[in-house]
Amino acid sequence: MNEELVRLQKAIANAGVASRRHAEELIATGHVEVNGQVVTEMGVKVTSRDEVLVDGVPLTKPISRHYLFYKPRGVITAVTDDKKRKVVTDYFEEVPERLYPVGRLDYDTSGLLIMTNDGEFANQLMHPKFKIEKHYIAKVQGIPTRLALDPLRKGMKIDGKKLAPARFNIISSDKAKKTAIVELTIHQGVNHQVKNMLKAVGFPVIKLSRPQYGPLTLDGLQPGDYRPLKPREVDALRKLAKGEDLR
User: Fold this and answer.
1) What's this model's pTM, rounded to 2 decimal places?
2) Which of 195, 239, 28 is nearest to 104 (CA)?
3) Which CATH class is domain 134-213?
4) Pick the catalytic residue: 106, 108, 118, 235?
5) 225 is catalytic
């Protein structure tokens, strides 16, 4: 029986060495060898019989690890930062596996972030065709009405990119301070999406958090805390990534 051929960058990501995008960078910069030869092209495919080395270390399929992390504000969603700012992996120094974040939250945004060493799982969750809902709570400047926020519900076009419709709810308003709290639910993962959408309708974000991702919440956690995902939670996320109904 012929073994499955997979793209080299996918094999590296599946082994938990790096995200697929970072794997492509490692290949392009000469850090990867296949059967004793340095490979710098993206089109190469491999099977489990091929010897793949990243910086001289062979690929092995690790046990998949998934964590729910309460990212604080003032932390970079990355594994390293050239400006030496705090990054999300700094909170996982006691975890032996090499973890990386699924998607991202802005430096000044707090909330729920999934950390994993499983590249295939991460790619499933981040694929644009899947519609895992992400819930945000935004403190905005100004007092919006439902009519003013209606373009969010209809879908918007910002910087030439069409954004899918979002659901929203005005939780509260402070007329004295001229601020309001708005809940927003989206399923895309465009950079700065929530901030850009609210700014476009005239209510710039002052503070932003993500308390829920799909069925997962931050219940019981404080900023900087994390916990392993339960098997049923991982299963639920995989089903959502495949477009299955959890009911």
Assistant:
1) 0.77
2) 195
3) alpha beta
4) 106
5) no
